[in-house]
């Protein structure tokens, strides 16, 4: 059954933001505004440590941010990578999508563009994120650990009452990454893709592996060929994970959200994964997806108590 409007996002950190996006869509707002405003809310919250303000830094203790925006009606894309000291990278990416040329900017070029267009300059490294970095640095030295830990991108896809669709992503990338490293999040076809005539998809997880399969575009094409969002996303993730294991011996964490042009959503994942969704006929909720050894995924709604405990835990003082 076709839904008037619908929205899906990665991770439980998007729970409140999806409510905001749903309100915009319910009040005849556009999908482009819904995904941008909702992601801005996640970017601005300092306790979400993989996105925006408070995002975890690279190996040099610098917060480098990546973001992207795509309009399903026109296929317009804007993307930035490795930008430092600017608030709300998703909004910079959306602004870029209005241009015909130069739609993907990185580093100093992205920062110059943001400055010229009046975006807010802000130090994105919080004291909490710095302490987390210092603690990790010490653990790496003392315990000989791998430095890389944490790579949760916030991704959102929305369909509005006019049938238009949009997708956006935002992340601080892999914690302790090398300076200049860029994952899948701002890369069209890998981190995101949307087409009004079919639907959209977006990915989170280990970007180095997601990019090897161009998974967001793959999921959209599977929906074009008749698969439901759930079938398309899970089959794509499972098949590609198995291929990586066969060719390389291992597959990183990969999760994909999908939304078709009738407003039906689905997810695919090879790890336990949380996501949020809302639609005209279903209240905003956060879900946990748990795949078994046969890649069959069980989805359960998280309780209000579980969400409150999550919010308490991310705000606890660092030891």
From TrEMBL:
Substrate binds at residues 181-184, 204-207. The record marks 152-153 as: Cleavage. Pfam families: Asparaginase_2. GO terms for cellular component: cytoplasm. SUPFAM superfamilies: N-terminal nucleophile aminohydrolases (Ntn hydrolases). The active site is at 153 (nucleophile). GO terms for molecular function: hydrolase activity, acting on carbon-nitrogen (but not peptide) bonds, in linear amides. PANTHER family: L-ASPARAGINASE, N(4)-(BETA-N-ACETYLGLUCOSAMINYL)-L-ASPARAGINASE. This is N(4)-(Beta-N-acetylglucosaminyl)-L-asparaginase. It comes from Fusobacterium hominis.
């Amino acid at each position: 059954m076709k839904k008037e409007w619908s929205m899906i996002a990665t991770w439980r950190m998007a729970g409140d933001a999806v409510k905001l996006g749903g309100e915009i869509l319910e009040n005849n707002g556009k999908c482009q505004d819904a995904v941008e405003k909702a992601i801005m809310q996640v970017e601005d919250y300092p306790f979400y440590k993989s996105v925006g303000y408070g995002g975890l830094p690279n190996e040099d203790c610098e917060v480098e941010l990546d973001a992207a925006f795509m309009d399903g009606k026109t296929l317009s894309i804007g993307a930035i990578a490795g930008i430092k000291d600017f608030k709300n990278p998703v909004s910079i990416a959306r602004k870029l999508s209005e241009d015909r040329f130069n739609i993907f900017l990185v580093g100093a070029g992205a920062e110059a563009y943001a400055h010229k267009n009046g975006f807010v300059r802000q130090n994105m490294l919080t004291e909490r994120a710095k302490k987390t970095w210092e603690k990790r640095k010490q653990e790496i030295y003392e315990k000989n650990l791998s430095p890389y830990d944490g790579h949760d991108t916030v991704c959102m896809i929305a369909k509005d009452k006019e049938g238009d669709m949009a997708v956006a992503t935002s992340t601080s990338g892999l914690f302790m990454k090398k300076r200049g490293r860029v994952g899948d999040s701002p890369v069209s076809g890998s981190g995101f893709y949307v087409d009004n005539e079919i639907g959209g998809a977006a990915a989170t997880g280990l970007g180095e592996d997601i990019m090897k399969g161009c998974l967001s575009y793959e999921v959209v094409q599977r929906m074009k060929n008749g698969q439901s969002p759930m079938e398309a996303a899970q089959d794509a993730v499972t098949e590609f994970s198995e291929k990586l294991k066969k060719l390389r011996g291992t597959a990183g964490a990969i999760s994909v959200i999908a939304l078709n042009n009738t407003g039906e959503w689905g997810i695919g994942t090879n790890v336990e994964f949380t996501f949020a969704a809302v639609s005209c006929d279903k209240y905003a909720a956060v879900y946990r997806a748990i795949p078994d050894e046969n890649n069959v995924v069980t989805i359960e709604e998280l309780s209000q108590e579980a969400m409150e405990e999550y919010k308490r835990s991310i705000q606890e003082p660092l030891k």
